[in-house]
Write a structure and sequence with these properties.
The chain is about 20% helix and about 30% strand. The chain has about 280 residues and is an alpha+beta fold. It has two domains: about 100 residues, Alpha-Beta Plaits (2-Layer Sandwich); about 180 residues, Pseudouridine synthase (2-Layer Sandwich), CATH 3.30.2350. It starts with a strand and ends in a 5-residue tail after the last helix.
């Protein structure tokens, strides 16, 4: 595996080491961290984003770009700001055009894992619900049966806990916030996804003898939307071979699952009032 690509934003004094998951003459797959935009924010152009940082690195002939003789990089798809995992880039325009055609036909198979509130009654289920931008809340989506765009996601329950579940999510279309809004619509919002009713996960709610040290403030076990793009499979645009790219779970999700396995294997700990407001 290639060495991580080092990026920094002097304006915000942030630094990232971006792992390389796959690379050849045409493609570059990176592991986007949570908390970094994929591309420029339509409302605030000054926020750091992965594509701008990469392009600045190429222009400045940073070692990672110079060693690869990179003059071009373009993303074939996007990940939300808080979502971590695989993002695929093209190193040349022909590769980008081929990837755009693939992603437009929804042929690449993307798999995510998510920690969600609630216990689905079946081991696998599907949500087929059209989506459209919310008419009032900027940046938010909603289910819109009449005028929304076709949206479908398959879900598989990997593990169940007292009040939570670990899901594998396979979006068959590529709408904004699709997995997040589909899980909210099904009644199982993602942990930490406050935009779509997903409340935080606290160790104090899991561990009965939890004690916080004096002067300390408890933080949630995972302080972002608990969603990770863990696998991408597609037909290579040049070789026509099927390639499968994988990304390990990030530390925050691993830690959250560890504590759930340790302390949340019994019956539900939520009162009826606490259970309100988690679904539609």
């Amino acid at each position: 595996m290639s060495a991580p690509i080092k990026l920094s934003s002097p304006a915000t004094r942030e630094f990232w080491e971006i792992p390389v998951l796959f690379e050849d003459a045409d493609l570059l797959a990176l592991e986007k961290p949570s908390g970094l935009l994929t591309s420029p924010d339509r409302y605030d152009a000054n926020r750091p984003n992965l594509m701008r940082l990469l392009h600045e690195g190429i222009a400045a002939a940073k070692p990672w770009a110079r060693d690869r003789q990179l003059t071009y990089l373009s993303n074939a798809h996007r990940l939300d700001f808080e979502t971590s995992g695989i993002i695929l880039l093209a190193k040349n325009k022909p590769a980008l055009m081929a990837l755009a055609s693939l992603f437009g036909s929804e042929k690449p198979l993307k798999k995510y894992i998510a920690l969600a509130w609630g216990i689905p009654p079946v081991p696998a289920f599907e949500v087929d619900a059209k989506l459209a931008p919310h008419p009032v809340r900027i940046g938010q989506m909603r289910v819109e049966p009449k005028d929304g765009k076709k949206s479908k996601t398959e879900f598989e329950v990997l593990e169940q806990f007292s009040d939570w579940c670990l899901l594998r999510c396979t979006p068959l279309t590529g709408r904004t916030h699709q997995i997040r809004i589909h899980l909210k619509h099904a009644g199982f919002p993602i942990v930490g996804d406050e935009l779509y009713s997903g409340k935080q996960l606290w160790l104090s709610r899991l561990k009965r003898d939890f004690r916080l040290k004096p002067g300390r403030e408890e933080r949630p076990l995972i302080s972002r939307v608990a969603l990770h793009a863990e696998e991408l499979s597609l037909v290579h645009p040049t070789t026509n071979e099927t390639i499968v790219i994988k990304s390990e779970w990030p530390k925050d999700i691993r830690v959250a699952v560890k504590y759930l396995r340790q302390y949340a294997t019994g019956p539900s700990r939520r009162s009826p009032s606490e259970a309100d407001g988690y679904g539609e």
